[in-house]
Design a protein that fits this description.
Strand content: under 5%
Number of helices: 8
Radius of gyration: 17 Å
Shape: globular
Distance between the termini: 31 Å
Number of domains: 1
Order of helices and strands: HHHHHHHH
Length: 181
């Protein structure tokens, strides 16, 4: 990978993580969108870049927005805070194991459910909604979040559906499909 492209992408990811500290829900959505767009940025800055080259660096950059999410979640109380802290710790175990082993399937076993829990709670707070976190509600939210994240983690790290492709080719192909070109 081109070092300049990596530095620029890293800076964009870090800056894109900071708004969550002021605007938890909108900033959280922004941080995730910036995370998802980094492959396009790297593709633009470093032609020929491939996804598999980026996994370790990406996981370190993920820690920036996740720590920002955690800082916000520590302002919460009760069930919302306890679950956020537990899910953050769970993902950190997966991150450390991934770093030790280099095995991407570890990330499938430790999906980032923290991210979706954060967005749900931050979204409720943004609308001034304070639900009673019954066992049923918690299980429902975490169940859906787990399902969504497992599919995502499996696609990225289990099946490696995006390895070996150029991010810009995906955009071009999607554009051609949408426009019939």
């Amino acid at each position: 990978m081109d070092p300049t492209a990596v530095l620029i992408t890293g800076a964009v990811r870090i800056v894109g993580s900071l708004p969550v500290l002021r605007w938890p829900f909108a900033g959280g959505v922004l941080a995730i969108l910036v995370d998802l767009s980094d492959l396009l940025l790297l593709g633009l800055l470093s032609p020929g870049f491939r996804v598999e080259e980026y996994q370790v660096f990406d996981k370190y950059l993920d820690q920036v927005y996740m720590v920002a999410f955690l800082i916000v979640a520590l302002r919460w109380s009760g069930t919302e805070r306890a679950i956020a802290v537990g899910l953050f710790a769970f993902r950190m175990v997966g991150f450390v194991l991934f770093e030790i082993t280099g095995e991407r399937l570890v990330l499938v076993a430790f999906p980032n459910v923290f991210e979706l829990w954060f967005l749900v709670v931050a979204g409720l707070h943004a609308r001034d909604v304070a639900p009673a976190w019954t066992r049923t509600r918690v299980i429902a939210v975490l169940g859906v979040a787990l399902l969504v994240k497992e599919v995502q983690e499996w696609a990225i790290h289990g099946a490696r559906l995006f390895d070996g492709i150029y991010a810009l080719d995906v955009v071009r192909d999607a554009w051609n499909w949408l426009t019939g070109g």
